[in-house]
Amino acid sequence: MKSVCFYFQVHQPVRLRKFGAFDIGKSPDYFDDGRNNFYLERISKKCYIPTNKIMLDLIRKTEGRFKVSFSITGILLEAMEKNFPETLDSFRKLVDTGSVELFGETYYHSLAYLISEKEFREQVKLHTEKVRSLFGVRPRVMRNTEAMYSNDVAALAGRMGFRGIVAEGLSHILGWRSPNHLYTPPGSDMRIFLRNFKLSDDIGFRFSCREWDGWPLTADKYANWLGDSDGDIINIFMDYETFGEHQWQETGIFEFMRHLPQEVSRHEHLEFMTPSEIIRAKKPVGVYDVPYLTSWADVHRDLSAWLENPMQRQAFDQMKGMESVVRNSKLLDTWRRLQTSDHFYYMCTKWFADGDVHKYFNCYDTPYDAFLNFMNVLTDLNNRMKQKGARKKR
Amino acid sequence: MKILMLGWEFPPFSSGGLGTHCYNITKALSDKNVDISFIMPGCDDDVSSDRVKVIRAGKGRLIKLGVSLKPYLPSLPVSVHSGDKTGNEKVYGQGFFQDVQKYTDLAVQVSRDLDCDVVHCHDWMTFPAGIKIKEEKKRPLIVTVHSTEFDRTGSLSPNPWISDIEWQGLYHADRIIAVSNRIKNLIVERYGVPPEKIDVVHNSIEPGKYAGAPMTFGLDQRVVLFLGRLALQKGPDHFLNAAKRVLEKDSNVRFIVVGIGDMLPQLIYMSINMGISSNVTFTGFQESIEGFYRMADLYVMPSVSEPFGITALEAMASGTPVIISKQSGVLEVAKHMLSADFWDADDIASKILGVLGYDCLRKEMQKNGLQEVSGMSWSDAAEKTIGVYREAMNHREVFVG
Prior knowledge:
Largest sheet of chain B: 8 strands, mixed
Number of domains of chain A: 2
Strand content of chain A: 5-15%
Distance between the termini of chain B: 25 Å
Strand content of chain B: 15-25%
CATH topology of the largest domain in chain A: 7-stranded beta/alpha barrel
Order of helices and strands of chain B: EHEHEEHHEHEHHEHEEHEHEHEHEEHHH
Mean pLDDT of chain B: 87
Helix content of chain B: 40-55%
Order of helices and strands of chain A: EHEHHEHEHEHEEHHEHEHEHHHHH
CATH architecture of the largest domain in chain A: Alpha-Beta Barrel
Shape of chain A: globular
Shape of chain B: globular
Number of strands of chain B: 14
Low-confidence stretches of chain A: none
Helix content of chain A: 40-55%
Number of helices of chain A: 15
Distance between the termini of chain A: 57 Å
Low-confidence stretches of chain B: 74-91
Radius of gyration of chain A: 21 Å
CATH class of the largest domain in chain A: Alpha Beta
Oligomer: heterodimer
Number of helices of chain B: 15
Strand order of the largest sheet of chain B: 3-4-2-1-5-6-7-8
């Protein structure tokens, strides 16, 4: 049997408000609650609630044979808990079916792995606790922010009790091999789930692209592609916002999903499985050796979307440099919210002039505005941290 | 293809983007074998001789009329209060309206000896002549709009005589060229011109001209540059407002104001009243501006209304980061600059402080800005302009109003 493993990343950044140089020292209010709630309400209506309903119907209709996994960031869970409880409930209902697995990740969808092991561990732990308190389950498989991955990330996740981890199935590392198998890192028994980027992006990026020779993508056509694939697991990983937001309702993306399980069931050798089931059922076929960090972002599949240009590096280094002091302050949570990868993504100049996907939901006119706004906030945070009274009482 | 072009004095005698445009588009069109007879007002020397001067330039010819048009420059000496009497004298020099009439008569007279397929006018002062020549020669008229009376006056008190000439030119034109979508929309909204009559041909730049090693300003101060006509449209007062805010946080910054205009006395008083005059330098008119771009750490252009804004591209080509008002057409062709609302002194100042304060930001803007303008050239603009000529020529039934 060949397993089809659907996994969706669910995340919304907590956006900063406009914070100019003259706001420094005047207001500790960094986040744009109004706009954040506005976007969250919109994405709930357009994507989360309708898609969750489809998923729930599919699970019920197939008596639990349709299975999916999610990774929901801590800051989003927190925001839903506070302001959008009905959206959170719709995720709860899905998890309660037993056909849905939840992954672990950093609470803040952050670049914490690049800060320190301690910081990374703490943020993953915060996330695990949040998931446990809201859903009553413990994540067993990890996805680091934007699938940032290396042998060392896998080893650390292993030490933290995770059994599997998500990575991009990169051709230059796989060589002749297929991403459609379980792999392990060198000398480890962690299980690596490699994203099949071709089949994932067919839905995530190309679904509505009329210039693409696969258009229009129908459920039966896609099920045939899955059926014809080599290997024994096919990992289809993408942003959950694909449904209704990256791909609008008018593209037919909901109808596609609604019919997919039925079309997949026509292929007798295909079944849906969650990663934890796959770990129990399947053996790894080889070693996926990644000595340096990779990711699933952009075409370069490295860290360059967040940490390439000198502005991104300076912003990150300055933020990182605050670690030892901020740990003993009441501002730890605020500092961590500034680690969310999106803040750095907005500073990316690579594709800026082309006006591509980086612009999506980007509230800044230019990467330069993103940098300045972030630095003003960071400067203010740094000043407050040094002031008397910010220290935690012990 | 023979073009009779009614345009503007070339740099350095021009007062801004219009002259730069005329010079570059004529050159680029000539390179593409377009035969141009270019009629321009004379500079002061030509006026004193009171003669029409014809200069052969390659295939085409340059015809300088014995009349000087300096609409946007003050007739010196100017008293500080001169603007308050009548609206017109504030923006336009004295005797200017007679000069326009003289220019029109001379241009029409000269045109009788010239053969052409298309008549092409730049901005309103040449429109009356263009309309007459079109009627006499029965040739299609094309007008390029670089700015309108609404841009120049910030829509506050547009001169009806001028906006009427603009309207007539737009009405009689067979095709209209707008230098940005921004000005195209303005023409549609304010003058009721059907949008399909307008083609957008963005201004451009010859980036090589501005390349060169950075220069230093004698003092150990960061330099923020304003370069443009000292007129309401260009927002020099907003520049000073932002300067004041910057100096509250960082006193080691020099603000250089290059250009002349009727607001100069007012601006000098303003800087004194704000207590920032020791950090502001007024240079007056400068023939060579390249050096100023290169010595500046930052170029700021807080225009109230900027149909295009070629100077932003010039600064980028000089490796100088740019902060431009959001009300600028150049944002349609170049992205690697910061923008702010012209009235938001705090935002402009905040961005100035940011660019001066973060080397990494300045370098990134420099690098990407240079790269962005490196692909630009007037040749593309000329190509598009030729397309507009062809379209006008192909619709031979020329409309004569």
